[in-house]
């Protein structure tokens, strides 16, 4: 099961400057573990100390926000596209 993951520019130094990765996972939670195996340190940027997704990082599966799906347990299927999008704040 191949999942396409779009990596934001600030995290690309952890992915050897790759903007897109292919991972094997059946849920967002598994995807995070898969990313950590291939790109050590990335999970610490995406999750807090208790392992929960950071509030300022948004995940989308095929353009749907996982907060309105099943959060980290959101299921993934072959061919899905996951976007990791850091929230932007300012004024």
UniProtKB/TrEMBL annotation:
<dbReference type="InterPro" id="IPR052045">
    <property type="entry name" value="Sulfur_Carrier/Prot_Modifier"/>
</dbReference>
<dbReference type="InterPro" id="IPR012675">
    <property type="entry name" value="Beta-grasp_dom_sf"/>
</dbReference>
<dbReference type="InterPro" id="IPR003749">
    <property type="entry name" value="ThiS/MoaD-like"/>
</dbReference>
<dbReference type="InterPro" id="IPR016155">
    <property type="entry name" value="Mopterin_synth/thiamin_S_b"/>
</dbReference>
<dbReference type="Pfam" id="PF02597">
    <property type="entry name" value="ThiS"/>
</dbReference>
<protein>
    <submittedName>
        <fullName>MoaD/ThiS family protein</fullName>
    </submittedName>
</protein>
